[in-house]
Amino acid sequence: MNGLSRKRYLELTEPTEEDCRSSWQRIKDALEETFREIESEQGKQSGVTASVQKKQPGSIEAGQEKQSGGIVSGCEKQSCTIEPALGFLQTLYPVCEDSAWKVTVSMVAVDNGWKAVRLEAGDTTKQHYGYCVDLGSTTVVMRLIDCARGRSLGQVSVNNRQIAWGADILTRIFYCKDHPERLKELTDATRASLAEAMEALRQKTGVGPEECLCMTMAGNAAMMHFFYGLDPFCVFASPYALRAGQVPAYSGKELGLPFSGMVYSYPARANYLGGDIVSGVLACGMDKADELGIFLDIGTNGELVIGNKEFLLCGAGAAGPALEGGVVKTGMRAEPGAVFGVKLENGSFQLQVIGGEAPRGICGSGIVDLLAELFLHGWVDIRGKFVPQASESIQWRQEEQEQAVEYAPGLWFYQSDITEFIRTKAAAHTMVEYLMGQVGLSMDHIGKFHVAGAFGTFLDKESAVAVGLYPDIERQRIVSEGNASLEGAQYWLLHRQAGQRIKEILEKMEYVQFAAVDDFLRMMTAAQALPHTDLERYPTVKQKLKL
Amino acid sequence: MNGLSRKRYLELTEPTEEDCRSSWQRIKDALEETFREIESEQGKQSGVTASVQKKQPGSIEAGQEKQSGGIVSGCEKQSCTIEPALGFLQTLYPVCEDSAWKVTVSMVAVDNGWKAVRLEAGDTTKQHYGYCVDLGSTTVVMRLIDCARGRSLGQVSVNNRQIAWGADILTRIFYCKDHPERLKELTDATRASLAEAMEALRQKTGVGPEECLCMTMAGNAAMMHFFYGLDPFCVFASPYALRAGQVPAYSGKELGLPFSGMVYSYPARANYLGGDIVSGVLACGMDKADELGIFLDIGTNGELVIGNKEFLLCGAGAAGPALEGGVVKTGMRAEPGAVFGVKLENGSFQLQVIGGEAPRGICGSGIVDLLAELFLHGWVDIRGKFVPQASESIQWRQEEQEQAVEYAPGLWFYQSDITEFIRTKAAAHTMVEYLMGQVGLSMDHIGKFHVAGAFGTFLDKESAVAVGLYPDIERQRIVSEGNASLEGAQYWLLHRQAGQRIKEILEKMEYVQFAAVDDFLRMMTAAQALPHTDLERYPTVKQKLKL
Fold this sequence. Notes:
homodimer, about 550 residues, alpha/beta, Ubiquitin-like (UB roll), 6-stranded mixed sheet
C-alpha cells in the first residue's frame, strides 16, 4: 500500500559514544533507508536497470527520470523530506529505550514529503486505519479503512446536521450571509456530523479516531466552504468565484474534529463542480481511459463530465428536484414506504415498496419506472400527455384541475408531475447533447456512461432509457458507479499518487457555463419529449413501442 | 529584505464571470508573479541573461542552475509552494471585498516554500516585525526586529525562570529525570520566560506578539530540550545522544507561546555544541572566511571552533565556573558591586566596580585583570605561586591555611583561587592548542580570534593575553563578538538563505571528543603556568616581564 499514511517498523541500533546520532536522526536515517529500498524496487519494476540505479543513487537526474515517468509520486525520492510532529519528538523518550529501539513510526503525507506523527513500541504496522468521507448536503457517509490491507471495515451514514438550518443549501447560505457567528454554527454542525460518524464507526468496528491517521473527503463546494468555515455565499452568487477551491491538508484538531490525523479534501473545479465530481471522475477512471466516457451525477443539481485521458469537458446545471421526488406531488425521499419500482401488467400497477410497507409516496427511481411504463403502454404519448382513451384509470381530477392516474391506493400521478419531470430530464439530456456536440461526437462514440449517486444505483436502466434520461446505448456500457465521490476518497486515502491525478484532472477540466450558451434553450425544447422529439436516437425504445 | 517572513502588498483584479478564480487562487497567482519578478531580478544580477530566463521561464533546468549556483534559496523558484493557513482562508471574506482587493499578505517560511498566515486591508508592508532570542540557561535575551528595515527596535533580558529549579543545569536535569510532569514544569517555565520578554518588549516598543510573524532562537542543547519538552538527561549522560538535535519550525501556539507566528531554532551539532555555537559561528562569518579563524565561547563550559570556509573543527569541555566568578572565594556574577577592572599602581590596587558601589566581590574580567597585574608585577610567578617577598600585601591567612592578597577592603584573593583559575584557562588553552595541532597549524596562521559571550565583551585583551587565556597575536585580530548567539539568530530572521548555511555548517563541523584524546592531560599540564611553561609563545608578555 502506498497511501496518504504509512507505518514502518524499524529495528534501530542503540546509540553509542561512537554513533551518538540523536534518537530522531536515527529514526529519520532508517526511514530514508526504507524509502530508498522502495525506490530501488520500483526502479527495477519500471525497467530502470539496477546498475543505472547504483551509478547515480542520489543524483538529481535519476530522481527526475522517475518522477517525469510518473512511476513514483515524487515523495519516495531520496530528497523527500521527513519532519517530526512536536508530539512525536516528545514521545521519543522513553518509547525508544523501553522498546529496545524496536519501534513503529506512523507518517502522514505533507506537501513535499512526510510528517512523522506517532511512535509506538514494537511492530504495530498491522493496526493502520484511516477514514474516507462523502460530505453530502443531506447525508454524511463515512468509511473506516484498514490501510494495511486496503479494505473497508465498515460504513455509516449520518444526517448532515446542517439540515436543522434548512433542508436546502440556499436557505443555509442565506442564513449565514454576513453573519460570521452564524457561519460558525453551520461549521460546527458539519464537524459534529463527522464526529458522530466517527463514533458510530467506533461502535461498529471498535476502532476510534485516535487510531486513525488520515481522512480524505469529497463534497460539493458549498459543503467544503461550510466545513472549513469559509463564507459560502459566493457559491451561488455571481461572479461565482469561490473563497478557495483547493485547500491544503490540515490536522483534524485544527478543524475541530476529535481526530489528530490529517484531513485531505478533493478540490473544486468551479462553484457547481465540486470535489465530489472530481473524486467521482477519478473513481471511474475516466481520466485514464482511452475510450470516451460520460460521467453523470443528477440530484437537485446535475453535474456532467465528458472525456477521456486526452480531455475533460464539464458542466453543471440546476436539474430541479424532480428526480429526488421533490416536485412530484406524492414524491418522497427513498425511505421506507416509498415506491421505488413499478410494472404495468394487464392494466394494473405492480409496485415495489422500500421496507415492504404500504406505499406512502414515490421516490426518484419509482417515478422513472412509472413514467416509462405509462409511455411504453401508450397511456402517455411522446409529448408526455396522458392519452385518456388508453385506460379508464386515467381520470380527470376535479380538485387539481388536471388528469392523473392512481398508481397506488390514494396516490395519484399527475399531468403536471410528468411535465415537471420531462423538463428535468430534458435539462440533463441537453447538457450531455451539448457537450457531445462541442467535441463533435455522437453517442456511438461513447465507451462508458457512468451514473453516479444513489439515484443511479436504484434506477432501472431500461426505464431510464425509455424516458430519455439515459442514452440508448448497449446496456452494459451504462455503469452505475454508486457513491463515486466516496469511492474516489477511498482511492486517494490508499494511493498517495492520486494527488498528482487530481491535479491533472483539475487542469484538464474545461468548464462550460450552460447559462451562456445561446442554443441551450432550443436544444432543451427538442428534448422535452419521451424519449426525445427525434425517436431515431432511441432505436430500442422505438422497437418496444412497435410491440 | 529576504527573511523568514515576507509581506507583500497586492492590487488584485476583482473577480468577474469570465475570470472567476477563487479569492485564494487570485492571491496565490499574484504572489507567484512577484516571486517570478524577484527571481528574474536576481537572475539578472547574477549574470544569467534575461534571454535565457525568457527561453525557459519555468523549466526545471533553469531552476536548478540557479539553485546549484546558490543564488536563490530554492524558495523563490517558480515551483516553490505557497499554502494558506486555515485562519488565512477564513479572513478572505470580507477583507478582499472591503479593501477593493488591495491587500497585504504576510507569509512565513516553511519547508519548501511559504505559508500565508495573515491578510490585511491596504498596504501594511511597513509594519513587519519579528523576534530573535538567545535562550541562555541564566538569561533570556530577546530583540524585537523591524523586518521591513532590518534593524532592532529594542532588546530585553529576563531571567530564565528555570533558575527556580536550580541555578545550574544539572540540578534541573536531575529534577526532571523520568518525571514527565516535572519536565513539563520546566518547559512551561521556559515558555513563561519568553512570554515575559515579549511583554517587556511590548512595554518598550508598543509592538506585541500578535504583530510578529517569526521568531528565531539559539540556545544550548539542554535549553532546547527543555523548551521543546524533550527529556534532557541525554545531554549530560553517556552516550550523549540527544533526543533531537534539529527540530522543524513549529507555530508559537503549538509551543505554548502567546504568539501565533513560527518559531525556528538553530540546530545542535552535538550535546555540548548547541545551536548557540552554530549561530555564533554563522554570525562571525567564519564559515565563509578565507583566513583561518578561532571561535571561543567560555563560560561554565568552553566551546571552541577552528576553521574557515573549507573546514570547521570543534570541541567542547567543562571549563569550570572559574571565569564566571564561581570558584574564586570572593567571586560573583557581573552585578553591581562586582570588581570588573583592576590596576596595580605603586603597590596599591585601583579598582573599577560595577555601579560605582563599594566592592562586594570580583567577577570574571576582574579576576583576569587582577591575576595579570599580580603576575606582571612579579607578585605571582610563572607557576602561579605567590612571591611573598615581592610585597608586604601578600600575607599568610591563618584561617584559610594559605597565602592571599587583599585586593579591596576585606576582600582577599587566595593561592587556591589562582590555582583554580589556571586550571580553567589551561583547559581552554589546550582545547585551542589541540585543535590547531590537529590541522597542523600554529597561531601565526590565525586570521581572527573571535571571543563570544558577555565575558569576552568586558575582558581586557592585554590581561587575557598576559595570563595566557588569549593567544599572543596582534590585538586587532582578537575580536569580541558580544552575544554572537543572538546576532546569529537575528541574521537568520532577516536572511532566509541562512538556512542553507546552517545546514552546511552542521555538515562541515567535525566534533572532537577531548575526553578521548590521550595527549590532552599532558598538554594541559604544560599550559598550567602564566602565561604558559613555554614563554616563547607569548613574546609581548615576555617583553613586558623584562620591563
